[in-house]
Amino acid sequence: MSEPLQGKTVVIVGAGPGFGRTLALRAAEQGATVVVAARTASRLDGIVDEVRAAGGTAIAAAVDATEPDSVRALRETVAQHTDAVHGLVYSAFAVPSMKPLAQTDHEQISRGIDLSVLGALRTTQEFTPLLEAGAETPDAEQIDAAPASSSVVMMASAVIHHSRERYAGYKIAKTALVALGHSLATELGPRGIRVNTVAPGYIYGETLKGYFEHLAGKYGGTVEDVYAHTAEKMDLRRLPGEREIVDPVVFLLSDAASAITGQTLTVDCGEFHT
Ligand SMILES: NC(=O)c1ccc[n+]([C@@H]2O[C@H](COP(=O)([O-])OP(=O)(O)OC[C@H]3O[C@@H](n4cnc5c(N)ncnc54)[C@H](OP(=O)(O)O)[C@@H]3O)[C@@H](O)[C@H]2O)c1
Q1: Are residues 154 and 221 in the same domain?
Q2: How far is the CA of 65 from the centre of ligand 1 (A)?
Q3: How many CA atoms lie within 13 A of 187 on its CB side?
Q4: Keywords of this protein's UniProt record, alphabetized (predicted)?
Q5: What is the pTM of this model?
Q6: Could you tell me if 54 and 110 lie in one domain?
Q7: Could you list the residue range(s) of the whole structural domain that residue 223 is in?
Q8: Is residue 97 part of a domain?
Q9: What confidence tens digit (pLDDT) does each residue in 213-253 have?
Q10: If you measure from the C-alpha of residue 116 to the centroid of ligand 1, how many angstroms do you get, rounded to a whole number?
Q11: Residue 252 CB less than 6 A away from ligand 1
Q12: Where would I find the beta strands (DSSP E) of 54-166?
């Protein structure tokens, strides 16, 4: 039996040390050729080495998703390797202000929107022709067959479901990203491209562990205390690990999700019932 991403090329923009690295390894294990893109070339090279050591295929390409010329150069690099892209994951993220709106200058909010929302838009627009080339043309005479579509997955956050103090800048950007996903799904669906967002509550990996260490230092206590306090709000009394966020993304990239577009999948161990 073939793997779910066999024969597909998947581009991950904003490939960091946690989610991005784990997704690259998992997507390659599931058969994809993976392109990892972000600003830190040394980290990308490390991810590529790990994928190759595990028997997968990957290339690294530096990109700054806030720079149109850089996103264009990424697309040109990818186009040198392939005529078609089947999956695009937009995960680029920088820690937002985490201050009340009254103390957040508009420039900070704009920067969050530029990276999270406009970065996703300019990347999707740049890759649309390659994504369209990755989709099968529907056969009008075979209405009961599901043609393979291409898939864009944009990483939102369960912050879209709450309005807690200090999360406003992050919420504004991620909620706009969900709205972008809806509109792109409408516009790109006729070209065979699905667009969905995934909203993790937390991803218990490198980035979050660092944040919990910061909170433990700031308020006293240990990382385990911060984890326990956070996890008590979840139905499952724990936080999702990287693989538990990555696997739903792999599902949305795969043809098993061929009829799913314009959706937001919340993955949060049951913190919010949406
Ligand atoms: N971690 C969580 O608990 C959590 C919870 C909910 C949602 N999420 C979402 O899930 C996604 C992955 O989270 P994560 O914790 O793995 O994030 P992360 O470790 O911070 O990885 C995101 C990566 O984005 C890259 N990036 C930042 N600015 C960029 C730019 N201008 N152009 C290209 N790449 C850029 C950074 O790499 P470079 O510095 O090398 O560019 C960074 O490593 C994010 O979208 C985040 O909002 C995370």
Answers
A1: no
A2: 11
A3: 11
A4: Oxidoreductase
A5: 0.96
A6: yes
A7: 204-239
A8: yes
A9: 999 999 999 999 999 999 999 999 999 999 999 999 999 99
A10: 9
A11: no
A12: 57-62, 87-90, 150-155
